[in-house]
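G.,

No rush on this.
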Amino acid sequence: MRFRYLEKSSTTAALHPWPARLVPPPRESTGAPNLRQTVTAATTSASSLGTTSPIEEVRTPEPVPATLEGSETILVVEDDDAVRKMACTFLTIKGYKVVEASNASDAIEIVTRDGKSIALLLTDVVMPGMKGRELVEQISKVCERLPVLYMSAYTEDAAVNSGILDRGTAFIEKPFGPDDLAAKIRELLGSNAMEQPSAN
């Protein structure tokens, strides 16, 4: 049986590198123009020609959670030791308490014993013995409304097309950074850090 509780460190935790197979190529700069300069230039050009040029409406970006930090307890289920430790490190950096399990049977035992204290389940999609969706079906018998976030090196479309995930399921693709993970979790739990429910 392999699981343990992790508490937030008083100093910033050192980040372990992602496994090489999960590291994406570096992104190039998009070179996106400054919106204020673009709008000003368009307005000036139209004025100099003595015509009125309509300005294209700027799409409002999707809202970002007010905070990426939290104090809830997250159960992390992942059979790959390096990936599990990385996810746990990211969560403790953001203030979460973490319980980790390397397999589905350990996760079910944890939820059966401490389900009232767990705020969210973060689980891999594909694991030996029991897939993530099967794990969630078992856990839902104990904690019916426990929020779930799936993670996988598959793209979301690939996971859906292969039948291992349903369309619209909360999902994050590996590799991810601490802010990516925290933003997904706060979307599921709410943007404000919440008090941890009592286990009594």
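When you get to it, here's the other one too:
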Amino acid sequence: MRMASVGMSLLVGICLLVLTLVGCEEAEEESGLAATATASPTVEATQVTTPTPPLPTEVISPTPEAPPPTEEPPPPSPEITEEPPPPTEVPPELTRIPWDEAINHTGELATVCGYVPHADYFSGSRGQPTFLYIGMSYLDPEVFTVVIWGEDRDDFPTAPEDAYLAKTVCVTGWIEPYLNAAQVTVGSPSDIVIQDTLSATPPAAESATPQAAVPSESQPIGSPAPPDFSPFAKGWGRHGFGMTVTASGQATATWRVYKWCSDDPIPPCDAMVENEIVYGGRATIVFTRVGGATAYGWVKESTDERILSGRVTLTLQPYDMALLESVGGFDVAPIVLCGPDYWQEAPESLREESPCGA
């Protein structure tokens, strides 16, 4: 029994010894691990931390090295432009008409075109007008006339009667009626444009076979018959006035001024020569065309523009009478004239009225 107790005690002691040894060994092992961790933390971190592979990123091509900085030019200043003027009303395009239709457009501002076969400068007439006759001929009863007064003549670099003669022109201005025709008064070279140079075409090559010439539209076709001045060609007169017209249309007129040169020598004035009165009023007239019973002409020279100047007309009346009217004269009332057959043709009642003076 005692032997059994001893054995049991011995077994318990052995077990305690074994447990003690095992516990010490574990404790020693834990102490060694702690010491190692304290002494070399970097090694532990190196062993524990493994490099992380980089995340996939967008591949960016290398940027070339920028050149050294230079002084940048100043930015351009904004361009300053003037504001456009306010819109103005654009006049409508002027009507462009041929010369022979101008009479149907009186009172209108238009451009009239045609050929200039004749031109005149009346330096001795009041206002010193220059006339450009547009049409087939200046003898045409419906000739269209361009009037340039002497005060505007110096604005033309060349004498208008030379510059526009035998040219096709276009004239811009207000169309005015004159007797049975029309006219335009211009004051500047810009109002007249020569069209020949714009419409000219190069001449065709000469042909071996001669051909008849084709007349140009800008040139008159044929020559009109000369006017018949025979009904007007005679001596016309009234008290203190006389006029003689030739068959060619040339005329001379004389009239009393009723101022004696002995009292006032400044012309015009009347003079007494060998008991005969020499009239102080004198004019030279050129009639250029006839329309019906009227002859149309111009005063080329006049000593008394109050009576005769500018355009004149001589219109036949019954009983060998006529009316002489000066459009440019200050005394615009027609002058009643009697021909050599008046006393034979006029009835007594008319003669008693003395229409041509005593």
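The longest helix spans residues 2-39. Helices lie at 2-39, 41-48, 150-153, 160-163, 196-199, 342-345, 348-353.

Enjoy the weekend,
O.
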